[in-house]
C-alpha cells in the first residue's frame, strides 16, 4: 500500500473516532460567567453565536441531572438556578441548540452568619493585556469564594465591544468559577453613563430605585456594600442616580445589617497619594456614615498602585484610643502602573507602584486577614483586623423521614423516593449513591447498573439545622435473584446534622434583566431540543466506514 495513502487513511480514522466520541463542544463567543450567587441561587450568564430558543443550564452536586431553561430566544442568555444548597460545590454546563460546554464548578454562598469567608478584590484591570491575565490566573489559583471588582472593568470607554475583549475574554476562566460583584469605574461612565456595564452584568437591585449601580449583600458573616462613586462625584445625571438617594440607602442599609463584619467598596479613593489623589466628596459625604455604623474596611481603585492608610477618622488619623477605618487603594489589576509623584504622607502605612496584584482576604470568626498577592506569587503587604464576636446562637433541629417504593430489583431498576421534613418549607436534595443527584420532596431514579447503593437525602431550611437521612437500595443484574431478606417494602430512615439555609436578604431571587428565568430542577437529562452529544451508535458506523475504505484500497492495489 502507498504510505501516503496509508497515513491519510489513518488520519481519517482518527478524526472520525475523535469527532464521534468527544461530543459537540460548544464554542461560545462568551463563556458562561457567574453572577448574583447566593446561598440558594446563582445566575449563569452566557452568549451564543446565533439566536437559540433552546438554551439551558444543566447542574447538580457531583453531576448535572437538574436543568434550568432560558426564556430568551436570541443570543443573550442569563439563567437563574434556584433551590441550591448553601456552601455547596455545584457542577454546571451550558447547552445551546445541540451543543454543550465543558463542565465547570462553583460554590454557593454559605448560610448568612457563617464565620468563614474568603474573597479577592482588585480594580483597574480591564485592559485585555498580559498583566490582567496574570492577575486573574493568580486569583483563580487562590480560589476565593467571590471576586469584588473595584471599577474600570473595561478600558478605555466601557463599550460593549470592550467588555467582551477586555473583561470577559481575558478573565473567562476566573469568571466561570468565581462570581464577580462589581462597582463601576469612571471609564465605564464614558459610554452612555455606564449603560453597557449594566447591560453586561447582573447585580443585586436592593436599593429603593431598583438600580444595579449600587447595592449590598451578605456573604457569610460579612456584609458588603457597593457604592457608585461616579454618581456621588457628579458624573451621572440625576435620572440615573443622586448623591442624596445613595447616601440614604447606605445609611439605612448599614443600620439594618446584623453581620459583624462590614466591607464597603467603590472606585474613587477617599484616601490616596497617587496620581488622582484623595476624593474629598467621598470622604466627607460617606466617611461619617462608615464611622457611625462601624465599617471595618474600605476598598477602592482609580489610582494605578497599591496603598494602605492607617486607621482614619474624619480628615485625620484616629487616635490610639479611637476606632478608625483603614482605606485601601487596590488599583494594580492590569492597567499600566503610575509612579507616585510625592513622598509618602504620614497617614500612609505602605504604598507600591511597581507590582500588579490583588488583595486576598480571609475573615474567620473575629479576625480579618488580608494580603496583597503579586503576580509572581510574592506578598507585598499583609495586615489583620480583629474584633470580639458574640457566641453564635444555637440552631433548632429539624426532622426528616425518607421512604422508597422499591428498595431492591433488577437493573434497570426504577425507584421512587419520598421525603417528609420539618419545617415544611425545607429544601430536599438527594444523592442516589451512583454519582447522580436531584432535588424535590418526591423524585424518581433509575439505576442502570447492579450494585448496593446508599441514598442520602438532605433537608435544609431557614433557621433550622440541616438534617440528613439515608436509605439502602440493592440492584441485581438481570436474571440474578435478589439477596435473601430483600423485598419491595418501602424503607425509611431518619437522622440529623447541624447547619441552616437562609436566602440572602435584600436580593430578589428573580432578576429583572431580560432573559432571566427561574431554575427548573428535578429533571432528567434531555429536553429543550438540546443534545449533550452524538449518539453512541455513530462510533460503530464510523468503524464500518473505515473498514470499507481499507477493503477498497486493497482491491485497487
Automatic annotation (TrEMBL):
InterPro entries tied to this protein: Calcineurin-like_PHP, FN3_dom, Ig-like_fold, Metallo-depent_PP-like, PAPs-like, PKD/Chitinase_dom, PKD_dom, PKD_dom_sf
Keyword Signal: yes
Signal sequence interval, chain numbering: 1-27
Keywords recorded for this protein, A-Z: Signal
Organism domain of life: Bacteria
UniProt-recorded Gene Ontology molecular function terms: acid phosphatase activity; metal ion binding
Every PKD domain range: 398-477
Stretches the record annotates as Disordered: 473-534
Pfam families: Metallophos (PF00149), PKD_4 (PF18911)
SUPFAM superfamilies (UniProt xref): Metallo-dependent phosphatases, PKD domain, Purple acid phosphatase, N-terminal domain
Gene3D superfamilies noted in UniProt: 3.60.21.10, Immunoglobulins, Purple acid phosphatase-like, N-terminal
Protein name as annotated: PKD domain-containing protein
Organism lineage: Bacteria, Pseudomonadati, Myxococcota, Myxococcia, Myxococcales
